[in-house]
Amino acid sequence: MTAPDNASLYRSIADELKAAIRAGVYAPGARLPSESELADQYDASRGTIRQAFAALVADGVISSRRGARRTVLGGPRLQSFADLVSFSRWARSVGEEPSGRVARLEHRAATLVEAEQLALAEGANVYHLTRVRMLDGRPVMIERTAYPEPVGELVVGIDPSGSITERLEELGLIFADAEHTIDAVPATAEDARLLAVRSRAPLLRERRRTTDPSGVPLEWSEDRYLGQEVAFTVRNSVNRNALSRWHSGPEVS
């Protein structure tokens, strides 16, 4: 049997620790074993354990403090948008079961904004999907996405309870790049009804245009999140700017 390489080993250790945290072996606020203790337990180097810790920090599972035992966080869980993962993949990564419910699917003329964002000619049509996304059955986000016709025709045949993005990838589309704009907006009457909140409750809005490797737009989406369920943060470095999503974050004000 071939020994796992370092990359798969640290990820395997991180996954085992994450499973133990979810199972309650390590409660929120508890300290994980030290690097040396885990290195002995997994017959791995301390460098590999540090990589596993880094993965758990990136997932928002443990504290980022160095020089002491890492502490299990009881609050937000982090997932980076730099990886351009779907809502469903992100949800599963933080131990939640994602699902979706279609509120409306229309084939109609593109609005001026949709035509501009999708680089469509005047008078072009789009497929527009309004869908409620859920975590373990709880509504947390409304997804309003416009697709150009070739993509929308594929969306029509996809089960909306699962990940549309993942299914489109299976059909050969490549979601390569995305631009995100984040702000806060009051819930409309429809938002309130779909998310079971009061009208004008504060919501986080993410507007996103996603393109394929050649820069052709695949979707233009406006997603609205419950502030108590999901929040956003931005990490800055000299090498890159990474937009990240938190689960169970602070309320928007």
From TrEMBL:
Keywords assigned by UniProt, alphabetized: DNA-binding, Transcription, Transcription regulation
Keyword field contains Transcription regulation: yes
Gene Ontology molecular function terms on file: DNA binding; DNA-binding transcription factor activity
Entry-linked InterPro entries: Bact_HTH_transcr_reg, Chorismate_lyase_/UTRA_dom_sf, Tscrpt_reg_HTH_GntR, UTRA, WH-like_DNA-bd_sf, WH_DNA-bd_sf
Record-linked PROSITE patterns: HTH_GNTR
Originating organism: Kribbella antibiotica
Signal peptide: none
Gene3D superfamilies: Chorismate lyase-like (3.40.1410.10), Winged helix-like DNA-binding domain superfamily/Winged helix DNA-binding domain (1.10.10.10)
A single GO BP: negative regulation of DNA-templated transcription
Name used for this protein in its record: GntR family transcriptional regulator
HTH gntR-type domain segment(s): 7-76
Superkingdom as given in the UniProt entry: Bacteria
Pfam families for this protein: GntR, UTRA
Alphabetical list of PANTHER family matching this protein: MANNOSYL-D-GLYCERATE TRANSPORT/METABOLISM SYSTEM REPRESSOR MNGR-RELATED (PTHR44846), MANNOSYL-D-GLYCERATE TRANSPORT_METABOLISM SYSTEM REPRESSOR MNGR-RELATED (PTHR44846:SF1)
